[in-house]
Amino acid sequence: MLKIFDTQEGRKKEFVPVREGSVGMYFCGMTVQSEPHVGHMRVALVSDVFRRYLRFKGYDVTLVINFTDIDDKIIAKAQEEGVEYTEIARRNIDKFMAFLRFLGAEEADHYPRATDHMGEIIDLVQTLVDRGHAYPSGGDVYFEVRKWPGYGKLSKRNIDDLIAGASERVDVDERKRNPEDFSLWKVAKEGEPYWDSPWGKGRPGWHIECSAMSMKYLGEHFDIHGGGTELIFPHHENEIAQSEAATGKAYVNHWVHHGLVNLVGEKMSKSTGHFKTMEEISKRFPPDVVRFYLLSTHYRSEIEFSDERLHEAATAIERFENLFRTLARLVGPEGDGEAAEASPGIVEIRGKFIDAMDDDLNTAGAIGHLFDLVRVLNQEIESGADATVLRGGRSVLRELLDILGLLRGVRGESDEVAEGVLQLVEERGRARAEKNWARADEIRDELAAKGYTVEDTPEGPVVRKLKG
Predict the structure, then answer these.
(1) Residues 297, 302, 306, 307: is their CA dihedral positive or negative?
(2) Pairing of strands 252-258, 222-228
(3) I need a labelling partner for 95 at 20 to 30 A (CA). Which of 53, 106, 149, 384 fits?
(4) What is the side-by-side strand order in the sheet with 202-204?
(5) pLDDT in tens, the chain (468 residues)
(6) Cα dihedral sign for 387, 388, 391, 396?
(7) At CA 16, angle to CA 12 and CA 17, rounded to 5?
(8) CA gap 53, 71 in Å, rounded
(9) Distances in Å between the alpha carbon of 76 and those of 34, 192, 416?
(10) Helix orientation angle between 206-218 and 237-247, rounded to the nearest 10 degrees
(11) What span, in angstroms and rounded, lies between the C-alpha atoms of 104 and 286?
(12) Residue 330: phi, psi to the nearest 5?
């Protein structure tokens, strides 16, 4: 039974789809004033693994990830560079998509942008005005928080405390009836982009965009809404209030929030400049290593980014790659749709992997069971297990890795070795035997320059071509 933690209820609860056999998911993507950092890509991987596992469970899944492509910071960046705001948005969306492909995440079904959905946004604001939950003021439109009794149910914040806190601010906007009211539509400032609306020229507030776009693609009531924990308040709290006030229906069944990615104890943030860009990381580490690193912690937990953790992930990935190559030598390369009978021990590990994923998509626990599977497969190899059993174990390993989207390009085929490479490998072996580690490292670098790597296994050194 699949259980997913729901932030609103504060507990894991059984996943029951709104519509039998299908799942609708909406994850908040980037505000695209700058290039993606590794924290932005966590939402891409969390949503990707959710979709992969729900498909494994037999559901037809629709995934929507939005881009906020118009806001104050994007406009400021465009003015700083002397270009149109659309150029800033296009450039950074393209980079997000490139890094999504780098990490092996499947593309979402829809990537809506706020600027492409002004009609839906304006209609939703008008509905809230008509229903008495919002009011125009000086070209702006505000949601009246006091008129929505459920406000605070996601973030568990007391509305009286919120109202008191808002009223104490020195920069209270006199156009609001109450300090805590939030913007649905903002009057355009001179020189800014704008859209025509019943309230004059302006653009949408941040929160209303996601309500309008999610309901367009998934309906007024859908299954899963996700994003980082920093979005719980006020963004997602405001989304719930305006969506349910507009429709009179429950908005989302499961609110899913992933932890932040931290750098030296401080969250990665574009506003502080404290972050590692995906551009930097992608030049230094292969896709599987970065993906494994991000999945090795439960999605609701924070991740401490460090090179050390990434090097640990590289070592882990190498263990899987070595096993696939060993199996390829012993029982032949993988075939499409390969299926064979696995040993009882491997079948048991498969069940534990699924149990971990059923428990709120615990990828960290699931990866632990993958290591158990590698250990058992290596034991079966050492004991001379039948080829059919080894193929069965490999088939299970491939199935489970596919759920996590790992090692898709590793098939265990043998590599043709260029002339002179084997001689270098033999020389390296002699250097290691003589404990001349400096020369052994030099030879490894020479091999890398030729496009090869050498890995030491119990059966001897294995040479393979470097990827890319």
Answers:
(1) positive
(2) parallel
(3) 53
(4) 134-137, 140-143, 182-187, 202-204
(5) 999 999 999 999 999 999 999 999 999 999 999 888 888 889 999 999 999 999 999 999 999 999 999 999 999 999 999 999 999 999 999 999 999 999 999 999 999 999 999 999 999 999 999 999 999 999 999 999 999 999 999 999 887 776 655 544 445 678 899 999 999 999 999 989 999 999 999 999 999 999 999 999 999 999 999 999 999 999 999 999 999 999 999 999 999 999 998 876 556 555 555 457 788 888 888 999 999 999 999 999 999 888 899 999 999 999 999 999 999 989 998 876 566 789 999 999 999 999 999 999 999 999 999 999 999 999 999 999 999 999 999 999 999 999 999 998 765 554 556 667 777 887 887 787 777 888 888 888 888 887 777 766 544 576 766 654
(6) negative
(7) 125
(8) 34
(9) 11, 10, 54
(10) 60
(11) 11
(12) -85, -40
If phi > 0 it is left, if psi is from -120 to 50 it is alpha, else beta; for residue 8 that is alpha
All domains in the chain, ordered by first residue: 3-280 (3.40.50.620), 306-404 (1.20.120.640), 421-465 (no CATH)
Q: Find the distance separating the first CA and the last CA of the chain, reported in whole Å.
A: 41
What would the two tokens of residue 281 be? 């990381």
Place of tokens 């470097």: 466
φ and ψ of 448, to 5 deg: -60, -40
Where do we find the tokens 């060993």? 326
**Which residue, among 354, 348, 410, has the nearest Cα to 376 in the 3D structure?**
348
Q: How far is 450 from 394, CA to CA, in rounded Å?
A: 31
Note whether 412 and 325 are within 8 A (CB).
yes
Residues in the chain: 468
For residue 139 the two structure tokens come to 């070209």
Task: Sort strands 266-267 and 261-263 into parallel, antiparallel or unpaired.
Answer: antiparallel
